[in-house]
Automatic annotation (TrEMBL):
A GO-annotated cellular component: cytosol
Species per Swiss-Prot/TrEMBL record: Dyadobacter fanqingshengii
Family annotation (SUPFAM superfamilies): Aconitase iron-sulfur domain, LeuD/IlvD-like
Protein name as it appears in the record: Aconitate hydratase A
Cofactor(s) required, per the database record: [4Fe-4S] cluster
Amino acid sequence: MAFDLEMIKGVYARMQERVEAARKIEGRPLTLAEKILYSHLWEGTPTQVYERGKSYVDFAPDRVAMQDATAQMALLQFMQAGRPQVAVPSTVHCDHLIQAEVGATQDLKNAVDKNKEVYDFLSSVSNKYGLGFWRAGAGIIHQVVLENYAFPGGMMIGTDSHTPNAGGLGMIAIGVGGADASDVMSGLAWELKMPRLIGVKLTGKLSGWTAAKDVILWVAGQLTVKGGTGYVVEYFGDGAESISATGKATICNMGAEIGATTSIFAYDARSAAYLRATERAEIADAADSIKEYLRSDDEIYADPATYFDQLIELDLSTLEPHVNGPFTPDLAWPLSKFATAVRENGWPEVLSVGLIGSCTNSSYEDVSRAASLAQQAVDKKLTVSSEYTITPGSELVRYTVERDGYLDTFAHIGGVVLANACGPCIGQWARHGAEKGEKNSIITSFNRNFSKRADGNPNTHSFVASPEIVTALAIAGRLTFDPRTDKLINSEGVEVMLDEPSGLEQPVRGYAVEDAGYQAPASDPSQVQVLVSPTSDRLQLLEPFAAWEGTDLKGLKLLIKAKGKCTTDHISMAGPWLKYRGHLDNISNNMLIGAVNYYNEKTNTIKNQLTNQYAEVPAVQRDYKAHGIGTIVVGDENYGEGSSREHAAMEPRFLGVRAILTKSFARIHETNLKKQGMLALTFAYTADYDKIQEDDSIDILGLETFAEGQPLTIVLHHIDGTNEEFPVNHTYNEQQIEWFKAGSALNIIRRSVGA
Ligand code: F3S
């Protein structure tokens, strides 16, 4: 599990030279985010200014982290690159597939049985290609990364939206899709639009019932779920230094809820303390030696409004505890206003379950503060009214808090400890009775509270708060309780009040663990066989896609002309299909089933030109494939918006679609198509969309001289014997044209490593 100190020292050595160069080019002081971004340019030392919100930049991240649901396809693709080892340090974390039902031990056992083939695959592929593997029960990706791999000034991508958690330790950490992870592990650059910057100036100090979580709950209320899109949020000011490293991580984690690219805090004494407590004193020493590079320049702090695109200020001394929700994390209520909101909106006042933990809030500090309240409940003879669960973020935290007696304390109030995994946070919660769909309230210390997310019941009103507030409300058993002002009646009929929570930032006796759940890669990878059963319906090894045949594409059939919105969800649906994420053939049976057919306005009903019958999109496409006929998909505006899900590009490629022709593309999807060796084309004149007819055969001409900036030509052969021709545009650069010719970007790498 050891972090790579030499790699980190290398980053620091480069950082000094590159930050100086960037400062010169920009001609102004730099923020922390800019320092880290400029020191991770793929091109090396910066030679040009990259404009915020405009320029697309190639980066060279230091690390990759993947969770088990997204790692499957990322690693199957990585194997296509033919590299003997991953190009950058990478880890896999088995946390998403464990269902919470009765408690940690039994739930973990069930998950290991049920997901054995997935875990065996991930373990063997990690072993063979040099990835660190954290098995089921080891913990949640972001907590494990924070404890082991995050480092100030680093840059990481992770296949999970809460990857920014590592910003608590001063790292630029960004959530991506599996294709990006596979590219970086294969040795390719990673592209991002230069983010804009929001500065959040924190003054004052947290105290009493207020916790780090309340900072981000308040910020979410200010910025809303879209306010951070395209931005890095940088927190600074005296107030920032009063927050522990894990508290900072909580704030950065939930930056995902405002849509931020990532969030970050500067390196400070609290970061150093956490690094030292988690046995990474060498990193703290290295960071101390360049600490002026691990924070924004002083001029920025002196005049933030000049340098940030947007500035927000918050006095922590005046910040109240918050409860956000229901159904959206940006509906922010200061606790003093929450009870009225509950009553006025008719939300169920009785609290059914309080859930603490998750990747957002399961540090030693969080657990110890929540436990201080649980202990008060015991001491003050209070009967705890709601169900109460604890999800530790890692085995390191779980073992340590058990040793220090906190889990016993929770047991005294009826708390159930769940596995060190995502569990209810990702809907992996077999909540008894949820299927009845009854109206009820829960409150969690997690990050998301969308309808149905936790238990599948659309009538569950889910609220988000700090672990302290979750615990206090669970003790009271109602949402309208304010522990700062309200009394409770104990089992002896006496009125009592809860005192403010107290806790410890780090364990006095240090962290401890017997088996952290880590598997280092094999010392002799040649002996390792990647385990994929040929009969598996969840996993399938990939075959490289065929190279371009070297000629124009003629006689393609129109597969579907999609009308209106066609997101990656329409192209590759989630829900029950998630199970097949590692099996391209099986998941391809969802290809474009959500797209609306222009000709009949129906979904998943298109004409098969070979039979003249209407059938499901995947079935029709498979029929063309069986007859060796290529096809073309036509789309409307912003085709492929939504997530970066690579399956939306891989499925058409796998089933034999040759080109996607649209009015416009969502950029990430367009790039994903290019990487998979597909043609992504746009109408030069959007009115030409109307020329496409249901029975068309289509030629794409000009491929033999395919070049950057040169349009291609589409010829439509209509069923009445007439033809029409029009130009189509593309955005392929020279390298991307090579991807097309080779059959995929990974085929190029494969060639370059001689596989
Ligand atoms: Fe898992 Fe929930 Fe975090 S799903 S990674 S615990 S946001």
